[in-house]
Amino acid sequence: MKFTSIQTEGNISTVMQFVLLGFSDLPNLQGFLFGVFSMVYVIIIFGNSLIVIITNLDPALRKPMYFFLANFSSSEICYVSVTLPRILVSLWTQDRGISMLNCAIQMCFLHMLGATECFLLAVMACDRYVAICNPLHYPLIMNQRMCTQLAVGSWVSGIPVQIGQTCQIFSLHFCGSKLINHFYCDIPPILRLACGDTSAHEIPVYLVAVLFVAVPFMLILASYSKIISTILRLPTAQGCAKAFSTCSSHLLVVVLFFGSATITYLRPKSNHSARTDKLLSLFYTILTPMFNPMIYSLRNKDVITALKKILIKK
Q: What 3-state class would DSSP assign to 175?
């Protein structure tokens, strides 16, 4: 395994290549882990692709809710493809080296797609708010043009901020250890390798996390507080059950995704540990994308009906 560095002023060795430790502490389980993560990757790609295909093929699913769900599933495929293939290569070849440029690219795309998912989850909550709290105006408000604008905005809004944040972090000097105790390049483990005090650089990280995690989450909470208030005023128990069923899948995904992301990026630095960061990262970058298709398909009658139609035709 080769390490690359250059010599700078003051005789400080600056890192040009990192090493992602990943599962290096489990040498006897490399083959087993490769098999497990290969299966997980196939499940994620297949499950989320199936949702995208179903929502585009079935006319009954050509509604704003399923349009945003298809976008969310697409973002999940992209999101997991930024990290998991690299993990599989490391497990198979035992080559854990990654250049600074590739590390920066991976981190930038990871956070751009993470921002996309946060915004899409917020947009999906707003869609449910309009559908339940203002049903008569729903077709006028959530028209095709509005849905397209919201989806495009969710995909592109995080790009300039995350590019700027990545440039800022990788403008730091990295000296000493080249070992990243993580599965992929992420902000907390990268900052641990920087020379000197990084407090000034951590403030923008928290601000960006508030913008892309806390703000969408607060918007989701506000939407669901209104939704629950409206549902509880419905005259029949059947109406309440139907309204809750349309929101339960989305709410479960929100709890899984935002819960782990908030703990990772918004908790105090003193509470950060490499082991905890690694466990949380596995949860929201791999397990959540794997569970999403199951949550949305098994808890959604429209998706199950559309899937049955396709299977019967085949």
A: strand
Give the integer Cα–Cα distance in Å for 10 and 64. Answer: 59
Rg (CA), the chain: 22
φ/ψ of residue 184, rounded to 5: -155, 175
DSSP string, 187-253: HHHHHHTBSS--HHHHHHHHHHHIIIIIHHHHHHHHHHHHHHHHHHT-SSHHHHHHHHHHHHHHHHH
pTM summary value: 0.86
Q: What digits encode the pLDDT tens for the residues 171-212?
A: 888 776 788 888 888 888 888 888 877 777 788 888 888 888
pLDDT in tens, 31-64: 898 999 999 999 999 999 988 988 888 888 888 9
Strands (E), the chain: 5-8, 12-15, 17-20, 97-99, 179-180
Residue 230 CB-density burial (10 A; 0-12 exposed, 13-18 middle, 19+ buried)? middle
Residues forming beta bridges with residue 20, ordered by sequence position: 180
Burial label, 167 (beta-carbon count in 10 A; 0-12, 13-18, 19+): exposed
**The token pair that represents 279 in the structure block:** 């466990």
CA distance 254 to 288: 10
For 5: left if phi > 0, alpha if psi spans -120 to 50, otherwise beta; the answer is: beta
Q: For residues 285 and 281, what is the distance between their CA atoms, to the nearest angstrom?
A: 6
DSSP string, 1-21: ----EEEEGGGEEEESEEEE-
